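Backbone geometry:

***
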Amino acid sequence: MFTGIVEELGEITAVENLGDACRFRLRGPVVTEGAKHGDSIAVNGVCLTVVDHEGDEFTADVMAETLNRSSLGALAVGSRVNLERPTAVGARLGGHIVQGHVDGTGEVLERKPSENWEIVKVSLPADLTRYVVEKGSITVDGISLTVVDAGPDYFTVSLIPTTLALTTLGLKQPGDPVNLEVDIVAKYVERLLATTQGAAK
C-alpha cells in the first residue's frame, strides 16, 4: 500500500521491448536504498516489482495489461517519473490509501498559474466520474491530491509549489497523459450498496 506522497523524481535510463511486455531501468537513489528483489515501488502511481537493483538504479518488468491501462507505455529514456516505496505498517498516512492499481488514464487539459499555486484541469474517463467528488481524494501519476472541482468529464486540482517542483505535474503540459487511481473506499462502498440492494429485492 502507498500513500501518494512522492519520495523523489526519478528517471527512465533504459527501455527494453519484450514483445508482450516491457522492461524499464529506472534511477532513484532514495527508493533504491535498501531495495531488494521482489520489493514494490510505485512508478507514476503504478505498483511495480523490483526485478534487479544495482547502485541507485532498479529494473522492473511491465506486462501488456499494465501498459494498456496506464501511461507507462509512453515512457522513454530520459522520462521523469514519480517514485514511492510502500508505506510501513504504523507509519503516518500522509496522503490517502493508494493501491498502485491504475483505474484509467486522463489527459492534462489546462493549466492556470497563480502567484502561489496552479490549477490543473484533467480529463476524466466516463466510467470513473461517479467515484470523483469535490474535496475528495484522487491519485494522479501516483500523487495524492484533493479534488477542487468535479465536472461531468473532468476534474481540477490545486498544486502548491512543492508539488510542482518535486513531481511530474510540474512538467506535464496540455495533451500529456496521466495515470488515475480513484479512492478505493468509494469503490468498496459502491459494491457493498449494490450487494445490499440486490439482497433486499
About this structure: The chain is about 15% helix and 40% strand. The radius of gyration is 17 Å. The longest strand covers residues 8-17.
